[in-house]
Design goal:
The chain contains nine helices and nine strands. It has helices at 22-33, 45-48, 64-77, 103-124, 150-170, 203-216, 225-235, 239-246, 268-287, and strands at residues 13-16, 37-42, 55-58, 82-87, 128-137, 176-182, 185-186, 201-202, 220-223. It is globular.
Length: 297
């Protein structure tokens, strides 16, 4: 009697940059829970140590020599090519004064979000299996220009184009490409913000949306849909309308993120402050009814 042995399914593997916090860490945890071999990359060794059982790679993605060394380590530990690479790491800083443009800040953001991604593409794309997938962390900020987001938005717009071009050139090699465009996601870094973030999701929700989209081979993974579709709709309106909608008063707030999360400056705090100021002016007028209104000549 011939006994048919059950087919052994090889363990799938994924490499994730920016896995020391936020979306990247949650993705690493969830893929581990699904039985994947996870290569978790980041600069914070202590934070990465939370990922028990994962292959931890501590390096700076902006250092091309370090990236090359880690790619060699990954290759030596693989029994088969990678099924999935998620280039999630990134940063965000805001231009607070467009007149006195901060070129060094601009360079930092572009280097981390775009140039460093090029280093990672050069190092890790050759390790992806045929039938595998490459995912780049973009942002829903690309759908509309936002105030003070010149550096962040420009870098993510470049990532969007990069993903589109790669999708064409990697198709003959049977490697799929996805770009991920999240809205506001709650992470330890965005917890520090003191402004409202509409339709904010948790890292767990973000991970579910991303993994679901990658499994289906979705080209552009954007979420939450009610937020991203709203941005896309506004982008179709006449330029003057969406420019007024996206304009904001000047602010000194600056945020820095390193996990691919969208974290644009919100206007609620400033609007609240202006509202209080207007209310005070009304009270003052009521308290001084005889005061004559000044008229410009």
């Amino acid at each position: 009697m011939n006994v048919v042995k059950p087919e052994h399914k090889p363990q799938q593997s994924v490499l994730i940059t920016g896995a020391s916090s936020g979306i990247g860490m949650q993705l690493a945890k969830d893929y581990q829970a699904e039985g994947w071999q996870v290569f978790a990359c980041g600069r914070n060794q202590h934070a990465l140590s939370q990922l028990k059982g994962a292959e931890l790679l501590v390096f700076d993605i902006t250092n091309n020599d370090e990236v090359k060394v880690q790619a060699a380590i990954v290759k030596s530990k693989l029994s088969a090519p990678l099924d999935l690479v998620i280039l999630n790491a990134g940063s965000c800083e805001y231009i607070n004064d467009a007149v006195n443009f901060d070129g060094e800040l601009f360079e930092r953001v572009i280097r981390t979000n775009l140039i460093a991604m090029g280093y990672c593409l050069a190092a890790f794309t050759p390790l992806i299996a045929k039938g595998g997938r490459l995912a780049l962390m973009g942002s829903s900020a690309v759908y509309l220009p936002f105030p003070r987001a010149e550096a962040y938005g420009a870098s993510k717009a470049a990532v969007q184009y990069l993903a589109s071009s790669l999708a064409i050139d990697l198709k003959p090699h049977d490697i799929g490409v996805s770009v991920i465009c999240p809205g506001f996601v709650k992470t330890p870094l965005t917890d520090k913000n003191d402004f409202s973030m509409p339709m904010q999701q948790t890292s767990e929700q973000a991970s579910i949306a991303i993994r679901k989209g990658l499994h289906k081979g979705v080209r552009e993974i954007h979420f939450p849909k009610r937020f991203t579709l709203l941005l896309k709709f506004i982008s179709l309106l006449p330029r003057g309308i969406w420019e007024r909608l996206s304009s904001a008063p000047e602010s000194d707030d600056t945020s820095l993120i390193e996990d691919g999360t969208l974290d644009l400056p919100a206007k609620s705090k400033l609007q609240s402050s202006q509202s209080k100021s207007n209310q005070q002016q009304i009270k003052d007028k009521k308290a001084n009814p005889k005061e004559k209104q000044k008229v410009s000549p």
